[in-house]
Amino acid sequence: MRSKHDGDGFVPTIQRMGTYANQSTILNPQKRLTGRDTDVVGEERAKIQRAQSAYFATINLNGHSTWEYDLKTFPRPSGRATRVVITEWDLPRPTIEPHDVVVDSKGIAWYSNFGEQNIGRFDPKTGKLTEIPVPELKKGSPLGALSIRMDRDENMWLGLMYQAAVAKLDTKTGKLQLWSAPPEWNRPNTQINMTSPMNIGVDGKVWAQNNGFAGVHRIDLATGKWEVWEPYKASPQGHNIYDVISDSQNNGWFTDIGRETIGRIDAKTGEITLYSTPTKSSGPRRGTMDAQDRLWFGQYRGNRIAMLDTKTLRFQEWEVSTPWSGPYDVAVDKNGEAWTGSMLNDRVTRLNPQSGEFVDYLLPRPTNIRRVFVETAPSKPVVFWVGSNHGASIIKLEPLD
Predict the structure, then answer these.
(1) What is the phi-psi region of residue 20: left when phi exceeds 0, alpha when psi lies from -120 to 50, beta otherwise?
(2) Residues 37 and 97 in one domain
(3) φ, ψ for residue 398 (rounded to 5)?
(4) In this structure, are 86 and 62 located in the same domain?
C-alpha cells in the first residue's frame, strides 16, 4: 500500500512470493522445490497475476502522494469483550513458529514448530521449555511441522509437511516414531500437513492429507501400509484439501479450502461422498469433530463458523461479527460454545450457537492466529490457547464470564 508500483510492477513480486514455502518468514525464508499439482499454471495463471497486480496498483501510492480513501478502524472491545485475562509467554528465539498449541490433562502446552525440526513442550507453571528434535528426512526440502493433535492417550501426532511423514511422540516414554510416505507418493511437492489420530482405536489406522496433489492418506500403523484417495484427480486445479478429521467410526472427513466442499471417505468401503456448504466459495479450512459426531470448521472465505451434523447431513452457519476475519479453525468447549480466531485481525471469537451471540476478544499484538484449542475438563473453567505463529509466543485467554 505504501509502494508506487504501476499496474505491471507487482507481477515479479507475486511470482517470487509464490516460490516460498508456507512456513517462510523474513527471519527464516524457505523455498519450495516445486509447485502443487493443484496450482493454476500457464496463461491462466499469468492472467490472474496481471489482474492482481492491476488491482494492487489502485490501492497503493502509484501516482498519488496520499491514499484516495479513508482508513477506518473497527471499534475497540467493550462490555463482555473486556472481561478477560490474557497471558503471553515469549519463546526464546524469534524463529520459533508455534503453529498449533494443545494442552494435555496435566496442563502442559505442546506445540508444532512451523519452521524448524522440533516439537515444543512448555510448562506454564515453571516457564520451562523443552525442545524435542525431529529428524530431517528429506535433505533440501523445507523444514517444520504444521498440525499437532493428541490421541486418546495424549500422545502427540504431527504432520511433517515437506518432510513427507507422519510423526508420533509418546509423551510418557519420549519415543518418537515416524512413518514416511512411500516413494510413489513421496514427491518433491508432497506436503503432509494434517493427521487425525483421535479414533485410532477403532481399526488401528490414522488419517492424513497431502497438500501437494489434493490427496487423503490412511496409514495402517501395524503394517505401515499407506492408502491414498484423490477426489479431484481428474480436475485438480483450484482444489486444495486442507484438513482431515475422523468421526467416531474412524471414517475420514476432509475440507476443500479451494471450493465449498466437505468430503467423506467411508472407512470400510473407501467410497467418497462430497457435500457442499450453503455458502458458496466458503473455503472450509480447519475443523474438529465433537462427541456427537458433528464437524465444526472455519469458513475462511465465507467469514463463518460452520457445523455439519455428520448423521443428519445438515449444515449450520454463523457469520462472524467482524467483517473479513477469515476464520481458520473452530474448537468447541464443554458448554457447547464454539471458538475461532482470525489470521488477519488478531481477534478471538466466541459463539453461543443457541443464541447466535458473538464475543470478540482483541489480542494485545499481532498474532497470526492459526489452530485454536480450548481446555474442556469438566472441573475446570474454559481456557483458550493459541500460538503466535509470527510472534514466537504462547497465549492463554481466560474469559471471566
Answers:
(1) beta
(2) no
(3) -115, 105
(4) no
